[in-house]
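Bit of a strange request maybe. I'm writing a small parser for structure token strings and I need a real example to test against, not something I typed by hand. Could someone generate the tokens for this chain?
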Amino acid sequence: AARPAAPSGAGRTFTANGVTIWYEVRGATKGTPLVVCNGGPGFDHTYELCSDAWDALAKSRPVVFWDQRGNGRSSPLAADTPCRLVDQIADLDALRRELKVAKLDLLGHSWGGFLVMAYAARHPEAIEHLLIVDSAAPKWSETEFMFKNFFPDQLEKQGREDFLDAVGDSAAFARGLQQYLGWLFVSTAKRDEFLALSPAFRFSRRVNEAISADVANLDLAPMLPLFRFPTLVVTGRYDVNVAPSTAWRIHRAIPDSRFVVFEQSGHLPFFEEPEAFTKAVESFLTAPRGR
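Reply from user aminoacidic:
Good idea to test on real output. This should exercise your parser:
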């Protein structure tokens, strides 16, 4: 069985850009912090804690989790509080200042991969290392979702849940979300372990809808060839949420980036292959510059 990370403690909060942001620093007190940007949009950081890869990495550096605006332990969005990509970038830079560091090792998973690419384009001076894990495409609308190819039967059921949700079945959305989470894995055992943890995950539909609408036609691709910091691009070989071809295109666009495929993983290689994931990330972060 996979070993989950330690649960989050009380953490800390700060206020910036009209919201309160929650974060937690784990592990070593010295070194460049590895800031983990979770996926969604709309999930809090909790689903990342399915894997103890983070606690292993935290033995030699600070590892920082945070809840993006409107999610989890960060403050709920007020009626007039915006939730756009530009706001998320500003919040992340406010977190960097809160940590009192000039540079970050920045890791983004799924939607978080899109966020860290956007942040790196806006604040290249703040990046020590960039890690892009099973990320959405640089042009959001071109993300290659593979569900229709692998789960056509289950997608029909998903369509019924979407209809029931639209006509007022309050439980339909939660059932559909559980089904979606079950599509993310190679191993059925790992799938079942993850789903057993999932009641603790928090998800905001408002954040999801606001961010998805904001980035619908945004294209980061022209910025990627300008990246001049060490970059690691990661994918699970059998990620049906975001096809590995998306990661390959990101890698090919970023000069001198590394590309790592986890052969027995879907969308969450840090959970399905935690030891290999830890080794790959550790190797990347400690490699001499100019490799």
